[in-house]
Amino acid sequence: MQPIRDRVIDVIRAGIERAQAEGVLPGFEVPAITVDKPRQEGHGDYATPVAMQLARVARMAPLRIASAIRDHLPEDPSIGSVEVAPPGFINLTLSGPWLASQVDTVLEEGEQFGRPACPRGVRVQVEYGSANPTGPLHVGFARNVVLGDALANLLAEAGYDVQREYYVNDAGTQMRQFQESLYARYAQALGQDVPMPEKGYQGWYITEWGRDIAEAEGRRFLDLPYEEAVAEIGEYGLQRRVLPSVRRDVEDMGIRYDNWFSERTLYQDGSFERAMEILREGGYVSERDGAVWFEATRLGADKDEVLIRSNGLPAYFASDVAYHYDKLVTRGFDLVIDVWGADHQGHVPRMKAMVEALGLDRDRLHLLLYQLVTLKRGGEIVRLSKRTGEMVTLRELIDEVSPDAVRYFLISRSPDSQMDFDLELAVKQSDENPVFYVKYAHARIASVLRLAEASGLSYEQADLGLLEHPSEMALLRHMLQLPEVVLDAAADFAPHRVAYYAYDLAKAFHAFYRDCRIVSSLTEDTEMTKARLRLAAAAKVALARALTVMGMEAPERM
């Protein structure tokens, strides 16, 4: 379905061109036309300030331009009425009969409702999650994986060719500390007096994994030289404990990655060397204090970044350079989106500078930053501490409140908004819980349709022209906004707008259910019943589509 807004824009453009053809408006190139929802009720479904934009080029008063456009609009079944309002707005109200007729369009499109007619041909990679592989995912990463996955779903719905990637940070200091910590707990489980490293991982899971490895492998790692043993047990822990744990947790959240990318490969396949060569040729690399630096300040960043430390080891930024060279050059994604916590905000200008230094368009990299989430239970903050082991894992959160509740709550706010996650609210079976409220709307429609089927009442053929009650019209208007919501939310990397849409649509349906009796007795106004059943079925399609984009189930029963 074409977004209604785009249809309105086409009508307005045609009105301008017809007015020009008749000499009512002078000749000029028609600019991009902006159409928005009016801020105040009673001003129509859509409003455009185009007449005010044209005042200078047309050398006419905006109200006069607006009147000329209105008078020359072509007839279109979607437009019910058009009004001109000071200082030059054109307000358009959609036709009620046309709105009602769109019920059939929604039902015909089904699972395609809300998707553009053709793919965009743009390859996008969304990289999210990507926690240091040193333990199970804790709840602090919940917003990252949910936000990234919802964004990937949204972009795919909007017609982009999307790849979902998890970056496995299996090189560097954090990995070394994990390896040494796991070896120490393994050795201790076998009665060896091996101290934990000073900055090691103290979590319960390290102790548990060390004991499990001791039981499974015996003294095998103790019989190896220390460096070899630390490396081997670290790889064992990564492949048999950490990554399976992460995969299980995200899969239970309904998240499946297309690719799991190893950081180590960047230093094995030549990506780092090739990227460094480009930076050197561009004059963006210098040496000082025994280290190798990327001169990000030359490209407007606030400070430079270390590439190679004075001890000869690559710094974190070196991996960033090589990884984004691989994504943007080697694999050739048109757009790369990294989902990061807001604490990395200062890193953004240097990442953008790095992309430019590689000879690429800065806009091919977008960093989606999100604020942290405060977990609460009974008004009390639930503290997180990965290093001390006093943490809440993502697994515990899923088990307590369900994957769909986790997804909806974490999607439902703009990424740049801090939020509290109320564990008690998330499990309530009442309208207070927005997850329950939205999903119950879908289940309620399913129940109504089952009742109709059990009564032998078919709504395949219905007189949709009977739909004119204000609650019916409100439901139609909300339902038909999905194509616009998908396109706009994808353009702005804003999956929370889908959550808003779903809630508003559920609210409109519940109001319709309250105000309009859907299933009457078979002897009482059967034609109105059929029309309302068909409207409810279309609303069910729209709700299911929104839930699907958010990665949630659309329940038939609750």
Name some characteristics of this structure.
558 residues, alpha/beta, Gyrase A, domain 2, Rossmann fold, Isoleucyl-tRNA Synthetase, Domain 1, 5-stranded parallel β-sheet, 3-stranded antiparallel β-sheet, 19 helices
Give structural notes.
Helices cover 48% and strands 12% of the residues. By secondary structure, it is α/β, with parallel strands linked by helices. The chain has three domains: 91 residues, Gyrase A, domain 2 (2-Layer Sandwich); 192 residues, Rossmann fold; 120 residues, Isoleucyl-tRNA Synthetase, Domain 1, CATH 1.10.730.10. The chain has a five-stranded parallel β-sheet with strand order 6-5-4-10-11, with helices on both faces. Strands 1-3-2 form a three-stranded antiparallel β-sheet. A three-stranded antiparallel β-sheet has the order 7-8-9. Strand 2 and strand 3 form a beta hairpin. It is flat and about 85 Å long.
Reconstruct the topology from this structure.
Blueprint: H1 4-21, E1 46-48, H2 50-58, H3 62-71, E2 79-85, E3 89-94, H4 96-109, E4 123-127, H5 142-157, E5 161-168, H6 173-189, H7 204-217, H8 226-252, E6 259-262, H9 271-281, E7 285-288, E8 291-294, E9 305-308, H10 316-330, E10 335-341, H11 348-357, E11 365-370, E12 373-377, E13 380-381, H12 394-401, H13 403-411, E14 419-422, H14 423-426, H15 434-454, H16 470-479, H17 482-491, H18 496-515, H19 526-549
Parallel strand pairs: 4-5, 4-10, 5-6, 10-11, 12-14
Antiparallel strand pairs: 1-3, 2-3, 7-8, 8-9, 12-13
